[in-house]
Design a protein that fits this description.
By secondary structure, the protein is mainly alpha-helical. Helix content is about 60%, strand content about 0%. Strand 1 and strand 2 form a beta hairpin.
């Protein structure tokens, strides 16, 4: 997959790099002006055409092939310098995939190649993940299945997060949790939860539990249960012993299918309880479950605080404060907020040590976060302090490895911006596209 995407980007770079260079007829062409033209062309084309009729009908696929040949060139030309786009431009491109296609087609395939290539870029990837998250919060109805699920399968194969993509994964999990906390309708719940499972998003535990207990999730539509969620993420039993029972919303008058469905649910609950009881004797299992619950509670509090600011700012089409969270969930978050202000929140030794180290580093030297390609700052949990007293932590521009006092990185001699852990990584990154982005000093 990586080799194919690498060849795709090499093809785009080879065939479309000339568009970004001034000519006699167009002496004032710059990368920025060309990107603006390409994005505007794609957005206008989407608005002018009846997309549902054009792509929804199988017969229309052949007609569409001839109609959007120009847009094919636009997408491939955009791929060359997509990481230089402004946030607004990148958001407009991502939003092009927020459409209900009856089946994947050439247009979606091309956009997938561009976005999924740049989401793995060590510098631009976290910013792109945040942009995707913003699209999700604004109106990401179909983007879960067509984009995020595909990204999840790539950066978390078999639900195991690849280390170099952890920052991207953390950002996507946060925004999906925020969407669950914001949404008060059940139409998109399965797609969101499915993406969280593929991303190994155990941090969503508290929020997903609230979704199932409050009955926002419609089992009749997707047939997915809270017990299956716990099993898929290898989670233990919730703190509330009655949570599994509360998440069981069987109608008073049910048919044969519904009766069988809830019977299977009860069997799954018994299986979970038995597995939890067998594993509870293992100290490492108990510690793992405790850490996962702490992560989930922390995520719920972060989402609550984020949604308070987000919804008050009026960025969402759906008004209301944390409209998707139950009253009990909001009350628990407020309680955690109050305890945090009073310094009563219990923390384990590991997290306490991390906080002490972080405070020491910030007191000794205050430096801004590393800017990404388009000038914004990559958000997300678990930021690494960039500076210590005697050395700076560098990130390899290709593999994402961090430097240590013993292992110092070398920088690109041309642009003086990108660092590498080895000569091999520098060669690979140069072939991967840095040679087209490198601005000589």
């Amino acid at each position: 997959v990586v080799e194919y995407r690498q060849k795709y980007m090499e093809m785009c770079t080879e065939q479309y790099s000339e568009l970004y260079k001034p000519t006699k007829d167009c002496p004032y062409v710059t990368v920025e002006t060309m990107l603006q033209y390409l994005v505007e062309d794609l957005v206008l084309w989407r608005q002018d055409e009846d997309w549902d009729d054009k792509f929804g009908d199988k017969i229309a696929e052949e007609i569409a092939e001839s109609l959007w040949l120009t847009e094919l060139h636009c997408i491939r030309a955009l791929a060359v310098h997509f990481n230089v786009c402004t946030r607004n431009q990148a958001e407009n491109v991502v939003a092009l995939l927020n459409l209900h296609f009856m089946e994947e087609n050439t247009f979606t395939d091309e956009l997938f190649e561009v976005i999924e290539y740049w989401i793995t870029d060590p510098t631009f990837g976290p910013t792109l993940a945040e942009i995707i998250g913003e699209v999700v919060l604004k109106a990401g109805v179909y983007i879960y299945e067509y984009l995020i699920e595909s990204i999840a399968e790539y950066i978390c194969p078999q639900q195991k997060t690849l280390v170099k993509y952890k920052k991207v994964r953390d950002i996507l999990v946060f925004y999906l949790c925020a969407e669950l906390g914001k949404s008060s309708v059940e139409c998109d719940m399965f797609d969101i939860i499915n993406c969280l499972v593929k991303l190994d998003g155990h941090e969503s535990w508290a929020i997903v539990e609230d979704v199932f207990i409050t009955g926002k999730y419609d089992h009749d539509i997707d047939g997915y249960t809270y017990a299956e969620y716990l099993e898929d993420l290898n989670l233990g039993l919730p703190d509330d012993v009655n949570a599994l029972r509360k998440a069981r919303h069987e109608p008073s008058q049910s048919d044969e299918y519904s009766q069988k469905f809830w019977k299977d649910y009860d069997e799954c609950c018994l299986k979970l309880e038995k597995r939890h009881e067998e594993n509870s004797a293992d100290p490492s299992y108990r510690n793992m479950q405790r850490c996962k619950k702490e992560d989930a509670n922390r995520m719920a509090l972060q989402v609550y605080e984020f949604l308070q600011k987000y919804l008050e700012a009026g960025k969402s089409k759906r008004k209301g404060k944390c409209s998707g969270m139950s009253a009990s969930m909001i009350e628990a978050c407020k309680k955690c907020q109050e305890e945090e202000r009073n310094g009563k929140v219990p923390v384990n030794k590991q997290s306490k040590d991390r906080k002490e180290k972080k405070s020491e580093s910030t007191n000794s030297t205050k430096n801004p976060d590393t800017p990404v390609a388009n000038g914004s700052k990559a958000p997300g949990p678990g930021k690494v302090p960039l500076n210590f007293k005697t050395y700076k932590i560098r990130e390899c521009g290709f593999c994402g490895k961090l430097s240590t006092p013993e292992l110092k990185f070398s920088k690109c001699a041309s642009c003086l911006h990108v660092y590498y852990c080895s000569r091999g990584c520098q060669k690979q990154h140069w072939k991967a596209g840095h040679k087209n982005q490198c601005n000589k000093k």
